Each structure stands twice: as structure tokens, then as C-alpha cells.
Queue: 3 jobs
Job 1
Amino acid sequence: MDKHALIVGCSDGIGLGVARVLLRDGCLVTGVSRSPSALAHERYEHAVFDVTAPDYATSLSALVGRRGPVDVCVYCAGIGKLFADAGLAADPRVLQVNLVGAAITAEVVIPPMLQAGAGHFVGLSSLADAFASRDAPSYAASKAGLSSYLVGLALALRGRGVYVTNVRFGFVDTKMARSPVRPFMISVERAADVVKTALRRRPIQLTYPKRMALLVWLVARAQAVSVWRS
């Protein structure tokens, strides 16, 4: 796989797992995150950028210009705060990182893909997009927005050679999995393999695991009934 992959949010967690998988497949990989990366490889370069910084788009454009055209971009950046811990103070940043940062990244990398008539943009969303969360309202809202944006973008770009995929995970064994109950949780390595599958098959949406999706659907359905009756 002789491609240039840009991974945003890859100093740890799923992003780091995806970087390792793509390096094993022979990709040139450029990583971007708020923190330095310990990953060392002759085909890997890491840049420390904050997706919420005013100069993020400019910095990313310069990086891509130097490293070369991006064939694949995987947006893994994501944060979440429990409402009980942070109240409303953390909500703007959660929305900026999880949703706005993805849109800014797309703004930088997709136009050159369209010009080339080829490319793939993947965003990591969550099954939390299916219902309103009293424990982490900004996280659920940001993922709902991200899923809607990615699917809409995929439909808009259909037929122009550029693919967009929305990957919806349940619980993954990372620092983000803070719930006391984490049914059907998967490893980072399994999540990275799922992303690799998305890159190979290029679906508009990929949801994993299916058992968790069914559980979330039942919860969302019960919540919708409760809201309707209130």
C-alpha cells in the first residue's frame, strides 16, 4: 500500500493503532496531535498541532504541502467530559475538537482529493450519536453532528472519486472509556483493524460492534418514548 495517510489525533489510542497498521502496510504516515508521539519509523513524521488553534488550517496546509498529497485522512481526534466533572465549561472545546476540527481538516484535505479525483476521508464517530446523554451531553451532541456531517459529505461527493466514511464505535479500551459500565468493549488493536476494513471497503458508514449498536438502539428508542411522553 504505497499511499500517504494523514492521521489527526494519533499520539495514543485508536489513532496510534491505525498509524501502526498503516505503517505495516507500507504507507507514508503523517501524524498530528496536541501531544508528541513516541512512535518512531522511517516513514512516519509527527507534528504537534491543536485542532482548535486559530492557525490549525494554515499549519496543516503547510505540513501537507511539504509531505505531499494526502491519499487517506483519518480523523481520530476526540475528547469527552462528564457533565458531573466539568459542568458546562468544557462543552465548547468538546464540540470544537470532535466536530469543528473534523470539518476544518476536511476543508484542507478534501479539495486536493477532488482535484486529483481520488481520496478517502474517514472520521471516527461513536454510537453515542444515537441518543442524548445526560452524563456527557456535549460528547453525544458532537458525535451526532459528526456522523450527520460525514454521511452528508459522503453523499455530496459520491461520483467524484472521493470517499467519506463514518466509523461508529461503541466502547474502545482507551482513556476515553470512562463509563463504569462498558458492554462489548473492544481493544485498540481491534478498532484499528475495523478502520483498516473501512479503508479497504470504503462504505459510507461502518458501525462496530453490531451487538452494541442493537443495545444503543434499544436505549435510544426508550429515551425517545420518554421524551415524547414528557
Job 2
Amino acid sequence: MAHIDGEPKLGLTRDQVRVAESDPRWQLVFDRLAAELRSALADLDVMVEHVGSTSVPGLAAKPIIDIAIGVHGPIAIDRFIQLLEPLGYIYRRDEGASGGQLFVVDEDNRPGHRIAYIHLVTTDDPQWSRYLGFRDRLREDPHARAEYQQLKRQLATEFRNDRAGYTAAKESFIAGLLR
């Protein structure tokens, strides 16, 4: 992956949990990645969105860029693999209802040090609405954003080397916010 001057420090190893202070440069990294993705996927009917905590200005986050690609119609995963692997995205698995088809990007010369995730879902999948709804709610509601940030910091200490535990522990807060 190409480097952007002044790019923020991104990435975590597989199980590591670290919450970093919000960095406005996360949006610049997303913009660069999204432009590459839109170009590579130009012949497909997709939407590319910045989701997750790095998409919310002022919110502390794990320093990994989350990108949701909404696909209109069925996902031909072999076609996406063919188009995304040359950009450095590695297909990992079908996360099902909790995240769609998952691709990862590792930092150059550091295999296993994730800097971005792509979650490939159909636009009629409830997960698509969940990604956008949660992001938008946090962007619009400073009280919810502050509560979520406090929870993330507490859980990052508690689950420092257990990413799955960290993610699971946030689930009830997320579900409540989306109700």
C-alpha cells in the first residue's frame, strides 16, 4: 500500500486491543483507500462507506480503518477476490450476519498487523443498515459518543489481548443504541 505523508500510526496485531485518540488523518486514509476501491470496482454496482469508530470525528478508536462495501444484488465473492487482492486486500472468510465477507489489509512488511478491514455486504442485509446507522448515531449524538468512548477505553484495558472478548463486550451497548 502506498504511504501518505503524515499518515497516522495504524494497525494492531490479531488479538491486540488498543484504543487511540481520534485522529483527523484517519479520514484521509479512508479517502485514499476508498478511491482505490471505487476505481477497482467501477464496473460493479457498489457503495463504499467509512464505518466503525475511525469514521466518527472526535471518537477514540482502535487504529484500524473499517470500510463497508454495500453491494446491490448478490455477492460474487470470486469476482471481488479477483479485483481486491491486487490492491493488497486478503480474503479471510464469511463473517455471516456479524460482518459479511471479510477482507483485511496488513501493513507493508508486517504480516498480521492489520491496518484496514473491508466488510462486503449486500445493501439489503440488515448489517449494512447497522453499519451506517451506528456510525451516524455516534456522529450526531455527543452523549452517546462520550458513553461509547468511555466503554471502549474501559474494555480495552480489560481485554487488552482478547479482541473477540472486547468486541463481544461492546455488543449490548451497540444494540441498545440502534434500538
Job 3
Amino acid sequence: MTITNLSEEHVNQLISFQKNEITEYYLYQKIAKKVKNEQNRTLLLEIANDEKRHYDFWKQYTHTDVKPNRWAIFKFYWIIRLLGLTFGIKLMEKGEAGAQIAYKEACSYIPDARKVVEDEDAHEAELINMIEEKKLDHVGSIVLGLNDALVELTGVLAGLTFALQNTKLIALAGLITGIAASFSMAASEYLSKRAEDENADALVSSLYTGAAYIITVVLLILPYLLISNFFISLGATLVIAVLIIFLFNYYISVAKDLNFRRRFTEMAVISLGVAALSFGIGFVIRQFLGVEV
């Protein structure tokens, strides 16, 4: 259908659509070249072709060639390389919420746009959900290691802070406890996976659990190695704990389409609640035993 009476504002809007589509076309093409998984490569190229069809559809009304946004290609390419294919693509798609509103507006002056956009967007969503990524298969193991380390170490460090009141001693005790617990958690995850399914990739799951645990331990104890005041160290540790919870839950909520606010609130309340309870226990034990360090 040919429409010749488009206003300058409408043409500029369509040109912005073209820019988004051609940018994503080149991005998906670029990512596909680096992907080893044959299924994922095929899916990415199919999504890229969808974006190119979008671009060509808008071009028939603007009669204009548009160049891609090189900065957006660079940014999302490296987000995907560093943080994973599923997360990067879904983050990019979530950023298009405003574009969807603009597309609906465009349907008011280009009726043919409605069916094309709805069909293609549904197709792209289906393809994105078919993407396979190994690290997301082990999210449960990462959650186990991360959550256990946050709950246990924030509690231990809070209790030790009041009981010992010496940053070096607290860091030493926390590291010993944390490292030992990380090995214990990794071993438990291995045995649990083997018990559930003899063919499960138990070793990889245990490594994810142990790695998530020990990285969290190091980050939580770091303030006690850098700051001499033990109360400030505890405050910094709690801030780091909340930041870890925020970043991890944001990542998972985007990659797996989960409710961010509910998951973040639940994990933060549990971790900080245990820390507060342990701090109180440390105070009571210190007073009861009359320990002076």
C-alpha cells in the first residue's frame, strides 16, 4: 500500500524505526559470527532477517537509506560477550518498550504496519525463547551458592564484628569459615545432583555453586581487610551484600523473565535479617561470657 501524504513528523518517526531495525540487523549478524552453538547461530540469523524485513517495510514509506547506530552495536555486542547471549538480547528487547508505543502510533497512519509488526515481534519473541545458553542451565546452582554465602557470611561477620571488634581477626575467622563452607556447599551440590540424576552434569553444577560462594565470601570480607573501623567495615559489607543481591537478581530477572522486585526484596530481607539477628547474638554472647579481645 502506497501512502504519499505523510507529514514530516511521521517520516522522521519512520526513519527512527528504520535506524533501530538496521542497527539490530547488523548486531545480530555480528553476534551470530561469534556463536559456536549451531542452533543459536541459526536463530540469530533468522532474527536478523526479521529486523531487515522491518527495515525494508518502513523504507517503502520513507524512501530513505538509514545507517545503523554504531555505538549501540558496540555496547550491546560487548554486553552479550561479557554477560551472556540471553541476558544481552533480552535487555536490548526490554529497552524497546517505548518503541512499541511508537509503533502502535504509526499504525494509525499506516494500517498495514499493525499486522507486519505484530507478526514479526511474536516471531522474534519465540526465537529468543529458543536460544540455548549453558550457564542459564546452572542458575539454580549459582543461586544456591550465592544465597547461602550471603545469608551465612553476613550473619557470621555481623556476629563476629561485635564479638571480636578487631577487623583482622574478623577477616581471618570469616575467610576460614567461608572457604570451608564453599567446599562443603560444592560437595553437597555434587552429591545432590548425582542423587537426583546419575546422568546430570553434577561436577559443573558443583563448580558453579562453589565459585559463586567463594566469590561472594571474598567480596563480603574485603571491607574488613581495607578498613580499620569494624563498624564501618560491617556497614560496607552490608552495602556490598545488597549490591550483589541487586545485580544478581536484575540479571536473572532479565535473562529468565522473572519478577525483579519480589526476588530482590525477598533475598535482601532474609540476608539482612539474619545479619541483624547474628549481630544481636554476638552482643549477648560477648556480654554473657565476658570475652575481651
